[in-house]
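Hi R.,

As promised, here are both runs. First protein below:
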Amino acid sequence: MKETSSTAEFTRSIPIKKRIQEEKISDTYKLQFELEEERKKNEKKFEELEWNECLKVMKIEDEKERKKIEEKKRKI
């Protein structure tokens, strides 16, 4: 009799275990998707920061060029 009840419990627990595994898999995919989205946002922010830094450097170089040209004009 004990074997029958334990077998029945085992049989009932299979769908529960399977559902729990499916939920874990689903959660894993959801987390992977969220991480990928976060990575894309961070990558975009990084590219924007990189571009802004590049623009700053270009602006500084342009200012230096302008100053050099102005100096040459003054000398002439």
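And here is the second one, sequence first, then its structure tokens:
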Amino acid sequence: MKARRLPLVLALGLAALGLASQAHADAEGWRF
């Protein structure tokens, strides 16, 4: 049953990583 939830977990992980990298870029003063 967990295999069906895997894409959702990956999508959430990518979204969190994107937000974190963007916040870091804003803190550094530059953007990807």
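A quick note on the second one: The chain is about 85% helix and 0% strand. Let me know what you think.

Best,
J.
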